[in-house]
Amino acid sequence: AGAETVKRAVELDVASRFQESLVCYQEGIDLLLQVVKATKDEAKKHRYRQKISEYMTRAEDIKKHIEKEKRDGKYHKQIRIEENATGFGYEKLFHEYLTEIVSEVWVEDPYIRHVHQASRYLLYNFLRFCEMLIKGPCKVKTIHLLTSYDEVSGRSQQMSGLEEIQQSLRNYGVTLNIEFSSSIHDREIRFNNGWMIKIGRGLDYFKKPQGRFSIGYCDFDLRPCHETTVDVFHTKHTKKM
Q1: CA-CA distance, 51 to 41, in Å (whole number)?
Q2: Which of 3, 136, 167, 220 is deepest in the core (most CB within 10 A)?
Q3: Where is the signal peptide (predicted)?
Q4: pLDDT in tens, 121-134
């Protein structure tokens, strides 16, 4: 398993998918270290240690490269969420970028709407995202939401839900500014520390829970996902900031 993981790391490295490559190198090195501990043949141990040393050196070089890209504002990380994958709650995706200096957040998503009985839990998703922001470690004071009107279930239900979230956030010292656009299509989340996250499905990449008392209903890390792609950028020249 260690050899296969390292082989995948090398393939990703050659393809310049450095973030994914680094993860595979780290996992592969851990697996190979376990093999070394279990191996009694000293010659094999020596060969394993040599390869591990090479992989560790390459992993460290990639880590430095990624850090330089972050400093230069050229960082790009892509995460592919597979169909029915779990373990991709909002904390998993966003926590790394919610540093203490984050005080303002922009959310652009055309489908922050009412809870459809047979469809998606869109307002609940946005509420869950807001809860994550409240828990920190960032000190969010303002959230800007740009979405579109719900012409299916009705604007009044949509506004009622959003206003309830708005009031609840106010109790925590957070202002929610809500704007509507009939032409918005892109889905994008930005933080005022320079991070920008684009998710193909926006905040709505979770599948509908099987029931109100099924595993994954409350804990999004346990909720199966729809297939989607997440792109993370860091730039010092984000015009929308």
Answers
A1: 16
A2: 220
A3: none
A4: 688 899 999 999 99
